[in-house]
Amino acid sequence: MTNRPSLGQRVLTAILQTLCVYLFAGWVYVAIIAVFRPGSLAVPLWNDLSWLRRDTFGAVAFAGSFVCYVVLQYRGLRRGNGTRKTRERPSS
Length: 92
Prior knowledge:
With 92 residues, the protein is mainly α.
């Protein structure tokens, strides 16, 4: 009998991985803008959401990405998949 995660656990892992990658990409987007056009960080990210500025989005995206990563690592450690097992070399 294998210790395979349930469908709900696999879906949650996929959602967390997707959020982690896309939120990190959003932070990288804001970081690139901060390097090349720092004066435009106070501009709204989207005109219809005037309260959401680029710098605020970058901070929230970085925090969200970090939280998703920590949760993924914690879940991996609880399942026993957090450490990589290395194969021992036979002595010659």
